[in-house]
């Protein structure tokens, strides 16, 4: 991610930063200073064109000239002409400049609220209603991407580097028969789920970044394989899904898997970094979408989308950026999803068949280089998220707390944060997030979250110390 270093950028500033020399010079307009506006109105009128509609997405940056209210007032009033920042002393009154600086400070404070003081000293964490301690399941692992439980309580875990383990009584045994994966960037061996009829068929389903050579280049895509687990070996491997087209990029694979009660398998696929083409294209393009298939790879006849020939496709919904978790709400039966936004605008969505979730037509975030992706956060025909995060927390795995083990949390949603290294607790009412709480602060990058058959929450953590923990409530 590029760090932007100027406190306020008006039109033309990006030319200075990034060398767009054909951008015309810009000076602040001179309006009637008696017609004072609110700070939100002034930001919308004079700042949002370059920095995006959401002020708190803009404030998620490094500040070259200081971020105190006094520093911001100087930057707004006097500008930094040599760096492309115009002076607004003729545009705003002193009162408006002060109010605008304080308005921006609120966005800065919102970002700083995620910067926790230090790494945890003990394995005990207090929340508003519950205190939990960590029970270590395994440590010294690679990046654990996915977890799934067998009927006997054993845990299957995937490591992004390409290794799969069976964990029983806190001891791990490697499972052989994993296919070749492209472990580069965000790719590798990814999610894993267990067949609902595992006792009869011993089937596992897992996603991975599948490579192929084409014209001397290595391309990759999100693929799903099913295999029979016999002891600690995979047999009968079969690829049941490949997201087309393959791409040269190494990010935004999506890859989360979940079964519904009817036995359909849902697969999240990221747009592979090509937002201008993939997520809104339905013909011959499976990237930036969520898919629905049968366990054998066939396509359910009641899927919404058809190709030009009238043949049913795997597509369940579209307009997704990089969906990082899927989970069914056990009380409503709805499919919930989190996905990474750009700089700002990570989302929780309730997924409905046939719907368009907006990317990149709508977004609450901006580009990593500070430019605006879109000035729309909502639009006709677009399904809005039920909540979003600014700044981006980089949500990963999630699970609904459906166990009496955590009575104060029962009915809530827990979501891992990769960026800020904590577990986000979302209290839900009527399909809305009504309150949030930050748990396990600075535990590490939380990659996956599951509720086991024993009713306990399991979290997979990477960096600074990779591990799988079980959360034990304390009386």
Description:
With 475 residues, this protein is mainly β. Helix 2 crosses helix 6 (94-112) and helix 5 (69-78) packs across helix 6 (94-112). It has a five-stranded antiparallel beta sheet, with no helix packed on it. Strands 3-4-5-6 form a four-stranded antiparallel beta sheet, with no helix packed on it. A four-stranded antiparallel beta sheet has the order 7-8-9-10, with no helix packed on it. The chain is built from seven helices and 25 strands.
Low-pLDDT residue spans:
1-27
What's the Cα radius of gyration? 24 Å
Give the strand order of the largest sheet, numbering strands 1, 2, ... along the chain.
1-2-25-24-23
The rough form would be described as globular
Average pLDDT rating = 90
Secondary-structure-based class equals mainly beta
* Number of E-state strands: 25
Note the beta-strand portion: 25-35%
Helix count equals 7
How would you name the oligomeric state of the polypeptide chains in this document?
single chain
Largest sheet: 5 strands, antiparallel
End-to-end Cα distance, whole Å, is 43 Å
**Helix content, binned percent:** 10-25%
């Amino acid at each position: 991610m590029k760090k932007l270093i100027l406190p306020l950028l008006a039109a033309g500033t990006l030319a200075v930063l990034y060398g767009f020399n054909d951008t015309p010079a810009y000076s602040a307009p001179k309006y009637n200073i008696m017609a004072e506006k609110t700070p939100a109105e002034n930001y919308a009128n004079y700042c949002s064109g370059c920095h995006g509609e959401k002020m708190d997405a803009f404030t998620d940056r490094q500040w070259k000239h200081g971020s105190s209210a006094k520093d911001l007032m100087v930057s707004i009033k006097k500008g930094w002409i040599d760096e492309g920042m115009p002076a607004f002393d003729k545009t705003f009154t002193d009162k408006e400049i002060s109010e605008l600086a304080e308005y921006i400070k609120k966005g800065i404070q919102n970002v700083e609220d995620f910067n926790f003081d230090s790494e945890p000293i003990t394995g005990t964490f207090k929340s508003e209603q519950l205190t939990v301690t960590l029970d270590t399941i395994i440590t010294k692992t690679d990046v654990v991407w996915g977890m799934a439980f067998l009927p006997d309580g054993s845990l299957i875990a995937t490591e992004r580097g390409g290794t799969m383990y069976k964990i029983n009584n806190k001891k791990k045994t490697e499972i052989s028969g994993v296919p070749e994966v492209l472990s580069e960037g965000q790719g590798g061996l990814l999610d894993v789920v267990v067949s609902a009829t595992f006792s009869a068929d011993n089937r596992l389903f897992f996603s991975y970044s599948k490579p192929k050579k084409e014209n001397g280049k290595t391309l990759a895509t999100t693929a799903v394989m099913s295999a029979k687990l016999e002891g600690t070996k995979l047999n009968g491997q079969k690829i049941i899904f490949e997201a087309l087209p393959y791409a040269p990029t190494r990010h935004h694979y999506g890859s989360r898997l979940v079964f519904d009660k009817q036995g359909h398998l849902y697969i999240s696929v990221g747009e592979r970094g090509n937002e201008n083409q993939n997520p809104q294209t339905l013909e011959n393009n499976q990237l930036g979408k969520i898919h629905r298939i049968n366990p054998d790879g066939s396509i359910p006849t009641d899927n919404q989308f058809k190709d030009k020939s009238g043949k049913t496709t795997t597509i369940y919904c579209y307009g997704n950026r990089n969906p990082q978790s899927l989970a069914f709400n056990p009380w409503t039966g709805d499919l919930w999803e989190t996905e990474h936004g750009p700089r700002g605008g990570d989302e929780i969505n309730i997924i409905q068949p046939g719907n368009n979730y907006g990317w990149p037509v709508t977004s609450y975030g901006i580009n990593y280089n500070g430019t605006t992706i879109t000035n729309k956060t909502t639009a006709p025909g677009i399904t809005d998220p039920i909540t979003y995060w600014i700044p981006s927390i980089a949500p990963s795995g999630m699970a609904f707390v459906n166990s009496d083990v955590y009575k104060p949390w029962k009915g809530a949603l827990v979501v891992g944060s990769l960026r800020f290294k904590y577990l986000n607790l979302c209290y839900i009412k009527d399909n809305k997030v009504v309150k949030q709480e930050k748990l396990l602060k600075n535990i590490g990058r939380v990659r996956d979250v599951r509720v086991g058959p024993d009713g306990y929450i399991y979290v997979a953590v990477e960096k600074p110390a990779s591990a799988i923990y079980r959360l034990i409530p304390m009386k």
